[in-house]
Write a structure and sequence with these properties.
The structure is a homodimer of 305-residue chains.
Chain A (H helix, E strand, L loop, with lengths): L2 E7 L13 E6 L2 E7 L3 H7 L7 E5 L11 H10 L6 E5 L3 H12 L7 E5 L6 E5 L3 E7 L7 E7 L5 E2 L10 H8 L4 E2 L5 E3 L1 H4 E2 L6 E5 L9 H4 L4 E5 L7 H6 L5 H11 L3 E5 L9 H10 L3 E3 L5 E3 L3
Parallel strand pairs in A: 3-4, 4-5, 5-6, 14-15, 15-16, 16-17
Antiparallel strand pairs in A: 1-2, 1-18, 2-3, 7-8, 8-9, 9-14, 10-13, 11-12
Helix pairs in contact in A: 8-9
Amino acid sequence: MDFELRILGSSSATPSANRHHTAQVLTIGNQYHLIDCGEGTQMQLMLYKIKHQRICNIYISHLHGDHYFGLAGLLSTMHLQGRHLPLHLFGPPGLSEILSLQFKYSGTNLCFQLIFHELDTTCYKKIFEDKQITVHTLPMEHRVPCCGFLFREKQKPRSLLKEKLPPFLTPPQLVRLKWGEDVLDEQGNILVQHKEVTTGPKRSRSYAYCSDSRYKPDLLPYLKNVDLLYHEATFTHDLQERATFTFHSTARQAAEMACAAQVRQLLIGHFSVRYKDLTPLLAEAQALFPKTDLAMEGNIFCVRD
Amino acid sequence: MDFELRILGSSSATPSANRHHTAQVLTIGNQYHLIDCGEGTQMQLMLYKIKHQRICNIYISHLHGDHYFGLAGLLSTMHLQGRHLPLHLFGPPGLSEILSLQFKYSGTNLCFQLIFHELDTTCYKKIFEDKQITVHTLPMEHRVPCCGFLFREKQKPRSLLKEKLPPFLTPPQLVRLKWGEDVLDEQGNILVQHKEVTTGPKRSRSYAYCSDSRYKPDLLPYLKNVDLLYHEATFTHDLQERATFTFHSTARQAAEMACAAQVRQLLIGHFSVRYKDLTPLLAEAQALFPKTDLAMEGNIFCVRD
């Protein structure tokens, strides 16, 4: 099953001529999760041939325009193109009010169901669950209510080794073996050990999106061992004071979080427009955490199981 | 003095991968007038190296997203980049309420003065005047309150022919000659005829922007003899019924307006996404009104005096 992240934009508040505002698509299986939706997101989706009709959930981290000014346009286009599938929208208080006002004045009555989930951005809390994944909020520390999102695959079943399976096993017993239980006889003695007739399970993959925030080490317990961590890195560390003052982070701070949480890979983004060349940000993070990449728009980051 | 129009986008409600939503910059002298502001306008301004700090007035024709979803982002960027000049914003009822709500939730307190002028979209009315131009609304017929805009240079002074000027003329007499008055003696006899010592005046140029509308021939008196007419042409004429039903126009209808108003040049735009190739729209309009061009983004149309 695919578990991959496509970057659509990673500029901070002011866009540059060749860097769009924040938006990302996380593909899990055949479902698209859109994370933030800066201005121009619908054009970026077209550019990268990502069908917006396959987006099931949209997550908005906070109500600074560079994270959501593309949302009303995307929803309008979904409507004009006759979407019929329901869409779940997760966002902070105020988002629903803003959209309702815009649709009121445009006379838009959406032709699909838009299910709005108002987020409590102050805590770690499960906001979505299906057969494959859970999504939790991650409380950020920013100038307005803001949260990140932790996507985690649920535990996967073990794989049966057909050549080692005794022929007498019933379907319910096979299911128990796949979930790591042994098969017992009537007296409670082990008849078949799950470890002997199964392998795995495959790893449950995870992606943590840390949106705009000051350096916030109390997030570390939630980020422990995640496969892919996106952390904003608006500034290089020489501008640490400015980062703190504006409730943003530096590339070094992002790398410190990645080190302490022992993640597999770090992505940095939300680059200030002052950096035409992003090499200093990358170098600063890689000095502490070598497995760092820039969240360059168009790039895809696959998480393997 | 420059009088030129730059097209930033001309797609209808749904953008295509290479056509942005409606936005245009009319340059008159050293001032920029931004007409509509679809999603992505701030990126288009950057692409074409148009300094947004030089925009003095913004005109929003109506509250369909493809005409204003780039506005909040552009204003935010002006704010972040420290604009200090006041900005005049002309738009229909509701626009101010929407922006206020967005700025409330983003905690934005604009660092420049945004002067909102609520438009009556139902009539022809002067909404702006300075030394050089006047701007009037043009009532459109659309699904929501909508108006176009007529930009017209004021009458210009005649040019003095220095070699023909008698030496005894005083500065006030020279001014009168420039404005087409003769110089008289104390008995009221003509001393100097303005036509003999001046030329001109240069033509007063005009641009009419007809935003989204059904075919509306009662606009013709306002459009008479304008230099440049932009008229929406969402569809080709085989889709006339659809045009009428959705309150839009066809390319042929745009050309009929241009013919009847005897304008110098016609621009058509607001193309439906169904037309990947715009040739049929252009051919249809040119069959009636040869001096028609497509409002292709990036193109500049100069009006000469």
